Amino acid sequence: MNIQLSDHFTYTKLLRFTAPSICMMIFTSFYSIVDGLFISNYTDVTQFAAINLVWPFIMIFGAIGFMFGSGGSALIAKTLGEGRKFKALRIFSLLIYTAIILGIIIAIGGIWLIKPILEAFGAHGELLAAALKYSRIIIPAIPFFMLQYTFQSLLVTAERPKLGFAVTFISGMTNIVLDALFIVKLNMGLIGAALATSAGIMVGGLIPLIYFCIDNKSPLRLGKTSLYWHSLLKICTNGLSEFVTVISQAVVTTLYNYQMLLFLGENGVAAYGIITYLSFVFAALFLGYAFGSAPITSFHFGAKNHAELHSLFVKNLKIIFCFAILMTLSAEFFAPFLTSFFIQNNNELFRLTVEGFRIYAVSFLFAGFSIFASSFFTALNNGIVSAVISVLRTLVFECICVMVIPAFFGVGGIWAAIIIAEILALSTSIYFFISRQKYYGY
C-alpha cells in the first residue's frame, strides 16, 4: 500500500517513506565515486587528481537541476495540498521543459568555457590535459544530469520514491559495469571513466522523463503548460538554497584543492578527493532524509495542518540526531577500511587520508541539522531563509575557515575547518528554527 502525502506520519511511516530517498542518495553518492575508485586503483595520481578538479565545475553547471528539483517539489506539493491539481500539473510540465532547454544551453557553453576555467584555477601540463580529456566527454551529458537531479525530488512529490531509487540503482549499475568494462578490461583510463559516467547520467535522466510522458498512476505527468513566470521565479527562490549549496561546495572544493596543492602537492589533492568521496556517502543519508521528508512538510503546510506539521518537525529532529551519532561513530571506526578501497600501494597517502578523514568526520555530528534546516525552510516555500542557511554554512563559514585556520594550524587546520564551519551553521539553524516557529506553526 502506497503512503500518501496526506497521511498522518508515525516514526515508522516516516522512515518507510523516506527510506527510498535515503537509499537513492546513498547509492547516488556511491556511484559518483566509482570513477574515483577505478581511476585511483588502475591509473595514477595525476588522472585521479584530474577528476577531482573537474567535478566541482560540472556540479556548478548542473546546480540548476538541484534548484529546480527542490524548489519545484516544494511548490508543486504545496499546490497539491491546496487542492489545485490542474495548476500543479502545468507547473510540473513547465519545470521539466525549462530544465531541458537550459541544460542544452549550459552544455554548449560548458564545452567552450572549461579550458580557461581550469587554467584559471592552476591546472597545467599533464594535469590540464587529463582534466580536459575527461570534461569534454562529461559536459555533453549535463542536460541529463540536470534532469536526473530534478526528478529525484519530484518522484517523491509524485508519491513514487521507490521508483526514484530504482532509477538511481539502474543508473549507478550502468556506470559501475561500464567502468569495469572500459577501465579494467579495455584499459581506456579517463576516457572510459567519462563514457561510463555519461552513460549512467543519461539513463538516470531518461527513465523518469519517459515515465512522466506516458499515463501513470502518480499525481504528476507531462502535458500542456503555460509560461508561469511567477511560478518559475518561486521555484528558483524556493530552490535557491540547494543551488547555492552546490555552487558553494564547488567553490569550497576548489579552495581545499588550492590549500592542498600549497601544503602537500598532488598527494594532498588526492587525499582530499578521497575524503570528499567518503563524506558524500555519509552526508547522503542526511540529504536523502531531508529530500524525502520535504514534500510531506510542503503538503501539510499547504493544507494548513499545523498539528501534523509540528509532529513532523519534532520527529525529524529526533531522527536526525540518531543519524548524526551513527554516522560519526561509523566514520571514525571504519576510516582505515574505507580508505583502503582507494589506496593500495601508497602508505604515505593512506596515512594522510585516514588521519584527515577522522578529523573531518567529527563534522557529521552537526551537519545533518543544517542540511535538514535548509531543506525544511525550502519545503515551507521560504527560499530566502533556506538560502541564508546554505550560504552561511558553505560559502561563508567554510570558505573563511579553510583559508584562515590552516595559516595557524597547518594541514590539521585544513581538516578541522569543516568542524568549526558546521558548528557555526548549526547555531544559525537553531536561530531560524526558534524565530520562525510561531509564524509557520510547527
Q: How is the topology of this model organized?
A:
Elements: H1 11-32, H2 34-42, H3 45-81, H4 85-120, H5 125-138, H6 142-157, H7 161-185, H8 189-213, H9 229-238, H10 240-263, H11 266-302, H12 306-340, H13 347-360, H14 364-379, H15 383-440
Descriptive overview:
The two termini are 28 Å apart. The chain has helices at residues 11-32, 34-42, 45-81, 85-120, 125-138, 142-157, 161-185, 189-213, 229-238, 240-263, 266-302, 306-340, 347-360, 364-379, 383-440. The chain has one domain (11-440). 56% of the residues are buried. Helix 4 packs antiparallel against helix 6. The mean pLDDT is 85. It contains 15 helices and no strands. It is mainly alpha-helical and 442 residues long.
Strand content: under 5%
**How many angstroms separate the termini?**
28 Å
* Uncertain runs: none
Radius of gyration: 21 Å
> How many helix segments?
15
